[in-house]
Design goal:
Blueprint (H helix, E strand, L loop, with lengths): L4 H9 L14 H11 L2 E7 L4 H9 L4 H10 E7 L3 H9 L7 E5 L5 E6 L4 H14 L4 H8 L5 H13 L5 H10 L5 H11 L6 H8 L1 H8 L1 H22 L2 H14 L1 H18 L3 H13 L4 H14 L4 H11 L9 H13 L3 H11 L6 H18 L1
Parallel strand pairs: 1-2
Antiparallel strand pairs: 1-3, 3-4
Helix pairs in contact: 1-13, 4-6, 7-8, 8-9, 8-10, 10-11, 12-13, 13-14, 14-15, 15-16, 16-18, 17-18, 18-19, 19-20, 19-21, 20-21
């Protein structure tokens, strides 16, 4: 299989609607309390006002819809100016020697990961997804559950934690519902909504039967996200077990219950299936449909990187990548984007076109490291043609 389940989950879900990362307004200790309450990881941007990469991330990365959709859903986000009193206090416990430094902390304040340096949107999303996929939110609830705590409070928290860790919660949820017939109507309703994580389950069917009730209780967006996440999880399972029926169920459910996302979701489903079947012709066909649903450059770049990593020697796919990126990257000064487009041109044996592209961009690049990189690419291509 050419792709991972974690990748598939990220590939679609980061395109949800948002307006940049929402940073917590409060102290670090208050963020800890909020993370404990919501069972979330803390993301810390340790920055200074004079730091160039910090400013670029603040303006060009944290403000992106994709960053907001993913980080707002999965983290308590906090920015800390390391030269202010609260920053110096934070730094006494979490030393910082370069800026920005990005921390991922658990709700006890323990460092999960510490990363130095600015990140592109793609790198930040990949980093966040990696943190989520590795961090198991369910450990403490599982320990309590296995020790005999089958209370409503612990079990619903356990189910939520399993879902957050991208693990199946159905066995625990079904056991609990079978063994607890005396739940209040509100408890049962809330538990079913929490446990509705996979489409091919009676619990999810029950949630859909009461969809309007849940919309009144939680709001349409929360319910739509619940349906989308369950569809993505079911689709991932379909690819993992090569189940055509599960794939059809995922596509049918989105088409019926989340119409605004249906075209993108279904085109992506067939695109990934073509990738799984190693069918380049179908991959191009459905990629064209999928690309029509994308509104941001970041999404198009993500698709291009994934397409190239899978079919880096297929001229039809490389041509589609070139057509997708040619206009958006015509005047880019981003190092990673320049490298990506240059690789596409070289893969198509368009060395002269790649040289012209780099030489045209080079005078407009102000960042020293990027300029040096572009000059090295120019030298490399000239040597190829020598």
């Amino acid at each position: 299989m050419r792709f991972s389940i974690a990748f598939l989950f990220l590939f679609f879900c980061t395109s949800s609607f948002a307006e940049g990362i929402e940073f917590f307004h409060g102290t670090y200790q208050e963020a800890i309390e909020e993370a404990t309450k919501q069972e979330k990881i803390i993301f810390v941007d340790a920055y200074t006002t004079w730091c160039g990469p910090c400013k670029r991330m603040a303006k060009q990365v944290f403000t992106k819809d994709e960053a907001g959709a993913f980080f707002n859903a999965n983290f308590i986000n906090i920015k800390i100016d390391m030269e202010k009193p609260n920053g110096r206090e934070f730094g006494s416990n979490y030393p910082v020697s370069a800026y920005p430094t990005l921390f991922f902390l658990d709700s006890n304040g323990k460092i999960i990961q510490k990363i130095v340096g600015g990140k592109s949107l793609e790198a930040l999303l990949a980093l966040g997804n990696d943190i989520i996929s590795k961090y198991d939110f369910s450990v403490k609830f599982r320990e309590a559950y296995e020790a005999g705590d089958r209370s409503y409070e612990n079990t619903i928290a356990y189910v939520n934690a399993l879902n957050k860790s991208n693990k199946s919660s159905l066995k625990i949820a079904n056991e609990f519902l079978l063994q607890n017939k005396d739940l209040t109507p509100q408890q049962k309703s809330d538990f079913i909504f929490a446990a509705a994580s996979e489409l091919d389950s009676k619990i999810f069917e029950t949630m859909l039967e009461n969809k309007n009730q849940y919309i009144k209780q939680y709001g349409a967006k929360v319910v739509q996200d619940k349906i989308l996440n369950a569809a993505v999880r079911t689709r991932n399972k379909a690819f993992e077990y090569e189940s055509e029926s599960l794939l059809q169920l995922a596509n049918k459910t989105i088409k019926k219950h989340y119409k605004s996302a249906a075209k993108s979701f279904i085109a992506e489903s067939f695109m990934i299936k073509a990738l799984q079947d190693d069918n380049p012709s179908d991959y191009v066909k459905f990629s064209k449909k999928y690309l029509k649903t994308l509104s941001t450059l970041e999404d198009k770049i993500n698709w291009s990187k994934n397409a190239m990593s899978s079919y880096k020697e297929n001229s039809e796919i490389l041509t589609l990548i070139q057509q997708t990126l040619e206009q958006p990257l015509a005047n880019t000064t981003d190092k990673n984007n320049i490298t990506l487009y240059t690789k596409v041109l070289l893969g198509l044996k368009k060395n002269n076109e790649a040289l012209e592209y780099l030489k045209r961009l080079e005078p407009s690049i102000s960042d020293g490291a990027t300029k040096k990189h572009v000059l090295s690419l120019i030298t490399y291509i000239e040597k190829l043609d020598a």
